[in-house]
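Page 37, continued from 36.
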């Protein structure tokens, strides 16, 4: 009775070499199905076979069904990935750890390493997993994500069978009191009693000794240490465990290879067990306190979430089979919705995901930095070392600097102070200013001095605190007075002004200190534009147009200065002079001159020129004139100033001319001789001269 089954097999194999007529009979054999190499058949067909359109023979399967069901021979096997295997077959896999067995009873067994494992040369599977700590978030080796709320040290990883190995992470606040960031990583080796600290700026300390590293691995107590432009790497090999720790100042990624069945402790094993992972011996006193802070109204959570969702798109999608993007999206969104996207933070989470993926895939995610507008892989603030109460951040100009941690600076900011109270001796006084507070104000400590300009502050290289002092033998210009039987030594800290005597672009800075006045006082000059825009109507014979002068705080001239806008000294301002009603094909507007006075009259004194004869004042390198005489509008930029010794209003006056365009020759030729300028003046429209004034005031 084997023949009908073999005939069925033949029909299956020869499909396409013959045709069947429409008069076929279906026989239901679901009560005793036929298994053929893993595929179950529950129906048989009585097939009328046609060859060249003629019916040649009918196989009456209906009459044979009972015999088939009674004495059929099962020739089933195993099927895997579309391939059929005979019972009793063993198939080796692509590595030493994987193989398939098709048993004598046609049961398929597939053996190999799990998704977080890899096959070693010894044919044994071992775990291959990554833990990522970035900002306040910990993404453990099972892709759970949790956020650290306080400023404590936590155990990231220890291994039951390797008691001498322990990895810890220390969290600190930065710009906000209520958001903590990964600040350093500590690798502890109990056997030799070694502590290796991976810190901000790429600094590495062995206990209290700073190490000098480069891209070549340096062996320190069995730990391979190296440093390149992307960060610092520490690699530890103990028994059959290999741990690699990478830290770039914001993100730590721990890649672990271990035998199957190994039990881990710490947040990298389960990030949800925060309360059980606190490392009290490495935490500062009171670190567990959770702080609140005022909401940052500038944060657009929807925009930040869209930014984080880039991880769900190409080119990151190429890594989704290797590294789950969801926990990274969660970590990114929860952080950027509560903390401003400064210091390159909006790229750190994307960088962390790309690096995690690189552990398992050779896909380089080419182009992701360009698509996401992220810079090269240079570690942020590399080699910029700040003190314990500081962190390295980015200034408004794009430079890096050491800024005060929010909790440390809160007591100073609440009192409006820049440093500690005066310390008095029998005939002396000293005052210490906080270096990071000065940096936030854009003040270079080296430009500060006492009444005697030769008396400068002394900076502590470790804390960046700046101390000014004087005594009886070196009074530094101190004024000594007697008042109510008290001898008062009084001095002032001021900014050295190296600019011209007429104007200054530095905020006025003055701190009077003595043994009487305990609280330092800083005088900061902040300005508001009195007239954000000035509109003047000009009529001169046939010419009729409107002239507008507007000030902006950005080079693209999109952020207009309003009455409520605060403008600081030495801040760059762009001023646009624009006309309406002129034929740009015939006439151009030439800004002949712009100058400042400390009174409303254009002829007032003192006077400071910004533009003269259509050209920028060559003595003031901050002035730049663009598009003058090229069309019906032009603009110029300069750095904000005030008149020295005055805190009153400043008036800027501009004189403009209309010029008949001839071969685009209305533009002044700056730096050329006077004859060329006079020839340009001859094309100005008679009596078409306009004056317009803008004021800025406190």
């Amino acid at each position: 009775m084997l023949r009908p089954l073999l005939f069925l097999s033949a029909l299956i194999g020869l499909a396409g070499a013959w045709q069947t007529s429409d008069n076929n009979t279906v026989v239901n054999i679901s009560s005793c199905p036929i298994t053929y190499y893993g595929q179950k058949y529950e129906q048989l067909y009585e097939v009328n076979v046609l060859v060249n359109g003629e019916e040649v023979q009918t196989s009456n399967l209906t009459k044979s069904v009972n015999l088939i069901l009674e004495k059929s021979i099962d020739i089933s096997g195993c099927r895997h990935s579309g391939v059929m295997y005979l019972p009793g077959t063993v198939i080796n896999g692509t590595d030493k750890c994987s193989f398939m067995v098709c048993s004598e009873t046609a049961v398929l067994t597939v053996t190999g390493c799990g998704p977080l494992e890899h096959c070693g040369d010894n044919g044994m599977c071992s775990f291959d997993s990554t833990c990522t700590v970035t900002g306040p978030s910990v993404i453990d080796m099972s892709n759970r994500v949790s956020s650290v709320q306080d400023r404590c040290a936590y155990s990231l990883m220890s291994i039951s069978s390797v008691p001498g190995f322990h990895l810890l992470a220390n969290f600190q606040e930065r710009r906000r009191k209520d958001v903590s960031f990964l600040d350093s990583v500590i690798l502890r080796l109990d056997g030799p009693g070694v502590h290796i600290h991976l810190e901000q700026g790429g600094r590495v300390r062995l206990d209290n000794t700073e190490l000098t590293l480069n891209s070549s691995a340096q062996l320190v107590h069995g730990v391979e240490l190296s440093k390149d432009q992307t960060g610092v790497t520490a690699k530890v090999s103990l028994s059959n465990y290999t741990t690699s720790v990478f830290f770039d100042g914001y993100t730590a990624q721990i890649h672990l290879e271990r035998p199957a069945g190994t039990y881990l402790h710490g947040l990298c094993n389960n990030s949800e067990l925060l309360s059980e992972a606190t490392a009290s011996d490495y935490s500062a006193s009171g670190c567990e306190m959770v702080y609140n802070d005022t909401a940052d109204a500038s944060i657009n959570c929807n925009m930040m979430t869209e930014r984080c969702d880039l991880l769900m798109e190409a080119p990151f999608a190429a890594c989704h089979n290797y590294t789950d993007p969801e926990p990274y999206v969660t970590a990114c969104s929860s952080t950027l919705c509560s903390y401003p996207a400064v210091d390159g933070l909006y790229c750190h989470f994307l960088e962390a995901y790309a690096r995690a993926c690189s552990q398992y895939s050779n896909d380089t995610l080419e182009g992701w930095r360009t698509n996401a507008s992220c810079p090269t892989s240079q570690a942020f603030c590399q080699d910029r070392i700040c003190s314990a109460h500081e962190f390295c951040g980015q200034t408004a100009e794009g430079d890096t600097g050491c800024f005060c941690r929010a909790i440390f600076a809160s007591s100073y900011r609440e009192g409006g102070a820049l440093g500690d109270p005066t310390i008095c001796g029998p005939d002396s006084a000293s005052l210490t200013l906080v270096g990071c507070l000065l940096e936030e104000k854009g003040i270079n400590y080296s430009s500060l001095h006492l009444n005697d300009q030769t008396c400068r502050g002394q900076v502590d290289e470790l804390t960046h605190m700046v101390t000014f002092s004087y005594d009886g033998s070196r009074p530094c210009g101190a004024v000594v007075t007697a008042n109510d039987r008290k001898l008062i030594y009084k001095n002032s800290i001021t900014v050295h002004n190296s600019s011209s005597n007429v104007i200054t672009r530095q905020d006025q800075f003055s701190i009077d200190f003595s043994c009487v006045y305990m609280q330092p006082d800083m005088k900061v000059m902040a300005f508001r534009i009195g007239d954000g825009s000035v509109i003047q109507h000009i009529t001169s014979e046939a010419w009729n147009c409107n002239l507008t002068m507007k000030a902006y705080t950005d080079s693209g001239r999109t952020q207009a200065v309003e009455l409520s806008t605060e403008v600081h000294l030495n801040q760059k301002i762009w001023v646009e002079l624009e006309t309406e009603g002129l034929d740009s094909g015939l006439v151009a507007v030439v800004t002949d001159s712009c100058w400042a006075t400390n009174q409303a009259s254009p002829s007032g004194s003192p006077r400071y020129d910004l533009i003269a004869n259509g050209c920028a004042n060559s003595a003031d390198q901050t002035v730049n004139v663009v598009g003058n005489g090229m069309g019906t509008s032009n603009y110029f930029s300069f750095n904000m100033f005030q008149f020295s010794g005055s805190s009153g209003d400043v008036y800027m006056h501009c004189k403009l001319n209309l010029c008949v365009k001839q071969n685009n020759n209305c533009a002044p030729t700056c730096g050329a001789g006077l004859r060329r300028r006079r020839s340009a003046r001859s094309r100005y429209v008679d009596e078409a001269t306009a004056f317009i004034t803008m004021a800025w005031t406190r």
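The two ends are 108 Å apart (CA to CA). Flag for discussion at group meeting. The first strand starts at residue 19 and ends at 20.
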